[in-house]
Design goal:
The chain is an alpha+beta fold and 490 residues long. It has 10 helices and 24 strands. Strands 1-2-6-7-10-13-14-15 form an 8-stranded antiparallel sheet, with helices on one face. A 4-stranded antiparallel sheet has the order 20-16-24-23, with no helix packed on it. A hairpin with a 2-residue loop joins β1 and β2. The protein starts with 25 loop residues before the first strand and ends in a 5-residue tail after the last strand. The N terminus is likely disordered.
Length: 490
């Protein structure tokens, strides 16, 4: 078993799944990027690929429909029109429901969780530009303004009226809300789908069972080691459930050389600090998402107390000091998928990838990242996306290596990343988990879009006792990659 792919978000389903007879259900996976500003992975256990593709189309259509209602990033959305005009005489039921949920969670968290932190976010973005933190008096004034009523909803007419013009953002809880509706649409309008898993940027909803009647295996990213192919801090075995993770390790503000979380506590105006990773299991993703974000701000004691009041919810928290705290019932969802220990290597590297194509595409991306020596001999495959031989073969360089290997997990719950941005790590071992000696290695990235661009790039970097780095230039199918070899003490 190749443990290097244990906790990879960059999932690979063996091509053999597409060859299973139609009367036997199989898992079919699809990947998209740039959906709700992040990545989207869908896996459906279905009687045929055609039925799985129907489910994919239903999910994409529903995600786009609801996005047009509640996305504050889209100037043409319904919520953006509300912010411009201050009133909607007949708002959609979806927008009204999201506003109601935000009001509920603001009250339940004593004001910590709020949709109206847009002004505070702008202050911290300006601090990132200047290198100077916002002063206490300025933050206090902004926080005081958030205590005013935000909006009024008339349930009979459907009208929504803003009572404050402070900018707000529905994308936190909104992403979970959209995910819930996408799952509901698939379940209600498709046939032949026995189970599924939808993962939007690390927020996950599963139902039914994976192939062979097994539970869905979902790894939880370690905030202190958050590369997309790094081992998780725990692995869950779930049937029908929602999982969301929040944390400042994937996004945030860099002010004066210090990293701050992008999650802003509306009570103080400051970024979350004590909890750097919060994962919540709940019955729906809107609840899981609201709780995970709230726990990032409330701290351990108050966070655990809040989770205890939510029926069916459990959590795992990681603190800035590295402590891992579980709610009383969390461990019953954990399964023993553990990577085998490896012999320490003198070599280590990180690879920061941006797969944003030169020409934007909604087609599914297929990607492989791997390491060879300078003679071209394969050392290790770091990550692979895609499950259709037709398109995997378009990764012609990687395909010729003949090193196909399945993943041991179905998804990874992690803090949401920006679209196209991924980080991989290499621990200096080969495909058999044996350490390699210091020296020059060639790092490869190959990306192909269905019926679209295909690009291959590589860079040679010396890895060993001193730092080394290299850059893969932009190409048609991706925006480039940065490779950094970390100096390790012998």
């Amino acid at each position: 078993m190749r443990h290097g792919l244990l906790a990879s978000l960059l999932l690979f389903t063996p091509p053999s799944t597409a060859l299973v007879p139609a009367h036997e259900p199989a898992a079919f996976s699809f990947r998209h990027d740039g959906i709700l500003g992040t990545s989207l992975d869908l896996t459906f256990v279905a009687d045929s690929r055609a039925e799985a593709e129907e489910a994919e189309a239903v999910a994409l259509t529903e995600i786009e429909r609801v996005r047009r209602l509640i996305s504050t990033w889209d100037p043409s959305s319904e919520v953006s029109r509300l912010q411009r005009e201050g009133r909607l005489d007949s708002a959609s039921s979806e927008l009204r429901r999201v506003l109601e949920l935000y009001a509920t969670w603001t009250a339940r968290t004593g004001g910590a969780y709020s949709a109206r932190v847009g002004g505070l976010v702008r202050m911290w973005k300006e601090a990132e530009r200047t290198g100077i933190e916002p002063d206490g008096a300025t933050l206090a004034r902004a926080v005081e303004a958030l205590r005013e009523p935000a909006w009024a909803i008339d349930d009979r007419s459907g009208a929504v009226r803003l009572m404050s013009r402070a900018p707000f953002d529905l994308n936190s809880l909104g992403k979970g809300f959209i995910l819930d509706l996408a799952v509901k649409a698939v379940q209600q309008t498709t046939t032949g789908v026995r189970g599924g898993l939808i993962n939007i940027g690390g927020d996950i909803r599963s139902w039914g069972v994976a192939t062979s009647g097994a539970p869905w295996r979902i790894a939880i990213a370690n905030p202190l080691r958050s590369a997309d192919n790094a081992p998780g801090i725990a692995t869950l075995g779930l049937g029908t459930a929602a999982v969301s993770t929040s944390g400042g390790y994937a996004r945030g503000f860099e002010v004066g050389g210090k990293h701050y979380s992008h999650i802003i506590d509306a009570r103080t105006g400051r970024p979350a600090g004590e909890v750097i990773g919060a994962t919540v299991i709940a019955r729906d993703n809107a609840t899981a998402n609201a709780l995970a974000t709230s726990l990032s701000m409330l701290g351990v004691a108050d966070g655990l107390a809040l989770v205890a009041t939510q029926p069916g919810a459990e959590c795992l928290l990681v603190t800035a000091s590295g402590d891992v705290i579980r709610s009383p019932g969390f461990s019953r969802f954990e399964v023993g998928v553990v990577a085998a220990p490896r012999t320490a290597s003198e070599v280590a590297a990180t690879i920061a990838i941006d797969i944003t194509p030169a020409v934007w595409s909604r087609h599914r991306p297929y990607m492989a990242a791997w390491v060879t020596d300078t003679t071209g001999r394969h050392i290790r495959t770091l990550a692979v996306w895609g499950d259709r031989p037709k398109y995997l073969r378009e990764l012609s360089k990687w395909w010729s290596l003949d090193v196909i290997s399945p993943s041991l997990v179905d998804a990874v719950a992690r803090a949401t990343r920006a679209a196209g941005k991924y980080t991989l790590e290499w621990d200096g071992t080969d495909q058999a988990d044996a350490p390699v000696p210091p020296g020059a290695y060639q790092f490869w990235l190959e990306v192909a879009f269905e019926n679209g661009a295909h690009s291959l790039r590589s860079v040679v970097v010396t890895c060993g006792s001193t730092p080394g780095s290299g850059v893969m230039p932009a190409a048609d199918a991706f925006a480039g990659a940065q490779v950094d070899c970390v100096a390790k003490k012998s």
